[in-house]
Amino acid sequence: MLYFVFFGGSSVTMPDLVGKSVIVAMENLQQLGLLPKVEEVGSYQMPGVVLGQLPEAGDKVKRGRVVILRVSSGGERYALPDVRGMQYESALSKLEESGFIAGDVLRIYDGNVPPGVVIAQSPAAPARVPPKTRVNVLVSLGPNVGDNNVFPLPNVTGMNVDEAKKVLSEVGLFAKNIEYIDTISTQRGVVMSTKPRDGTQVARGSQVTLIVSSGKAPQKQPSQEVVRVPGAAVSQDVVASPPKPAAKEPTKPEGERTQQEGVKTEKPQPKPADVSGQKVADEQQVETKQAKVRYPVPPLSRPLELVIKATDKRGERTILSKEVKGNEYITLDIPYTEQLVVTIYLGGEFVWEERYF
């Protein structure tokens, strides 16, 4: 290392070198006749940046004195995620998962951004910054609504998604969330309902979820399994009634067979007479149950025919056949013995099947 020695004992004022690059700082010191000595320290600042100096800025020192420069050696930096457009809770989780700390939150009214959505952040992304950096965010409160800005939600059922969004946007509502229901009863992409329901009082700037037809047929599962469609909920409550004795049948000649419920069964032989000489026939007890079927009709863009069929040992029979509207609630109590299969069709399309034992 080359040392410069100055004589004469003249003094100079120490310059402020903090924040400058080590190259510039060393040049400044050498021009003043001072001798720089670099000490690297760990820091999240950019490598090569002067973090401190000794003597400090403004001190009077003699030429030829050694000046210590504490210089950043750099540190680990993480990619800062862009959380603009995210709900604040989701943005907070994203920042914490990435190794950063949530800083200050400023909330303002903004008619173009839904409530709770992050508008801006500081530091801005994309960038690579030290871990545990505090990130401040600006969050929307939505439009500055008053009592006169509360109104019934318009009915957009039957519109396509773009039309529905346009109608809702014109009255200051947002429809970013879409839920699809598998059905071929309503054309693909057509709005079947909304959350909240049309007519509900909403404030300007509120979020509306569109329930839209996917245009796909629901998948029918094997009869041993329960098949459900979104919005359908069925209660299977089986109530056993007291057993009823079967009517006594007269004695038939041996070998005679009878046809009962589609199954050939051999008639029981008469029992020997008791001591009084009276003949006693077997009493057959049949357990009767009731299947409580509860079916909420899903949202529909138009009325459809609902058919409910029941199949047991007596064969298949139609329990209900009528035209229904969306969101109707169907309640049926179907008596049966042993086991029962209930199948529901809506608009000629299979939607649900379940077994009762």
From TrEMBL:
Residues 234-289 are annotated as: Disordered. Residues 8-73, 74-141, 147-214 form the PASTA domain. Residues 246-269 have a biased composition (Basic and acidic residues). CDD domains: PASTA_pknB. SUPFAM superfamilies: Penicillin-binding protein 2x (pbp-2x), c-terminal domain. It holds the Pfam family PASTA. PROSITE patterns: PASTA. This is PASTA domain-containing protein. It comes from Acetomicrobium hydrogeniformans. The lineage of its organism: Bacteria, Thermotogati, Synergistota, Synergistia, Synergistales.
